[in-house]
Each structure stands twice: as C-alpha cells, then as structure tokens.
User: What shape does this take?
Amino acid sequence: MCLAVPGKILSLQQSGRATVDMLGAQRDISLRLTPGACVNDYVLVHAGFAIQVIDAQEAAETLQLVHDLADLADAR
Assistant: This one.
C-alpha cells in the first residue's frame, strides 16, 4: 500500500524542487509532476514527488486521518 502525505510548500528552488513541511519535518521534494505549485500550496507527496496540489481543507482532513491512525496504533 502506498501513502501520499500532504505537505505545505515553504520555498521554491529554480531546479524545479521545493522545501515542504510534512508533519513538522522539512523535506526537499520534486515539483516535476506539479509545475504550477506555489509557496503556501499544499501538495500530496509520494516518494519524493508532489503528485497533486490540494486545498487546505483537504490537507487538514488527511493530516487528521494520519494522526488518528497513529493514535490507534499507540492504543494497541
């Protein structure tokens, strides 16, 4: 199973890459698949690539699901 995690774009580089905040960690990712993405956009990130731009509400809902899954795992 694959999981794409939302990240908020913090900065862009001319190389077609960006720095994103994903669950509090900063990562360098490729924007090759989402060339129109801008600073402050949320993107779904999989395997180091932004695969889709999403709105802030969808990002918040997805991040809440990730946190809920972690809480369930801790409760076991």
User: Anything to note?
Assistant: The longest helix spans residues 56-75. The first strand starts at residue 5 and ends at 12.
